[in-house]
Amino acid sequence: MHCLVLALFSMLLPDSVLASLPAPVNVSVISVNFHHVLRWDPGPGTPPGTQYMISKRLDDKRRLNSTTTSLKLKLKNYYKYHLNVQAYYNQTWSPVSNKYTFSPFKDTTIGPPKVSLAGCGNCIQINMSLPEADRSSGINDIQKFFTAYFRIFCRRGKETVPQSFVFYKML
Ligand SMILES: *[C@@H]1O[C@H](CO)[C@@H](O)[C@H](O)[C@H]1NC(C)=O
Ligand SMILES: *[C@@H]1O[C@H](CO)[C@@H](O)[C@H](O)[C@H]1NC(C)=O
Ligand SMILES: *[C@@H]1O[C@H](CO)[C@@H](O)[C@H](O)[C@H]1NC(C)=O
Ligand SMILES: *[C@@H]1O[C@H](CO)[C@@H](O)[C@H](O)[C@H]1NC(C)=O
């Protein structure tokens, strides 16, 4: 039923509307250690040379302008952003893309800790550290920022269940 309605609807639309600029699709943020990159795909049939305007928040008139389909963003760590992208070509604006909601402190992925091990007689010395945050975040130490702790699994001999230790502070 939906297909039929859509087909009838598109037959009624004039060519100029069908040929207009499509909205960008697949808007998302790839963010690791507070390095945020917004990316999107041009809607089908988007001509080369199209420009894109990026809004970070719904109520924000300031927009970023890009000729590529990805853009590194400088964001405030505790804000909640509603990102969207609009295409612009030859005096024509596309509809606005779907919005993508992103909060840096919740949604960034923290890379794995760096770990090094050394034997010291009948003990093991383990050093652990988290990766550095992107400079634009102003975060000096990701571990302090999140009050993160490390969980260490240690398996002896043929034990099937590893022992686990939790460290809240770096030693
Ligand atoms: C959007 O993403 C989907 C899934 O990755 C992909 O199949 C599709 O081709 C993308 N759309 C465009 C216009 O590139
Ligand atoms: C985007 O920026 C370029 C260079 O600053 C400018 O020439 C162009 O007009 C801008 N596009 C829009 C749609 O504002
Ligand atoms: C831009 O739009 C005008 C009027 O719609 C059209 O005549 C012209 O061919 C277009 N130019 C390009 C490069 O698409
Ligand atoms: C751990 O860090 C301490 C202090 O920086 C250093 O002396 C030691 O060699 C390191 N151990 C390992 C296993 O990396």
Automatic annotation (TrEMBL):
Presence of keyword DNA damage = no
The record, for Pfam families, names: Tissue_fac
PROSITE patterns the record matches: FN3
This protein's UniProt keywords: Receptor, Signal
Q: Name the lineage.
A: Eukaryota, Metazoa, Chordata, Craniata, Vertebrata
Q: Output the CDD domains linked to this UniProt entry.
A: FN3
Q: What is the name of the protein in this document?
A: Putative interferon alpha/beta receptor 1-like
Task: Supply one GO molecular-function term.
Answer: cytokine receptor activity
Residue ranges of the Fibronectin type-III domain? Answer: 21-108
Any single GO CC term annotated in Swiss-Prot or TrEMBL for this entry: plasma membrane
Name the InterPro entries on file.
Answer: FN3_dom (IPR003961), FN3_sf (IPR036116), Ig-like_fold (IPR013783), Type-II_Cytokine-TF_Rcpt (IPR050650)
Signal sequence segment: 1-19
Question: According to the lineage, what is the superkingdom?
Answer: Eukaryota
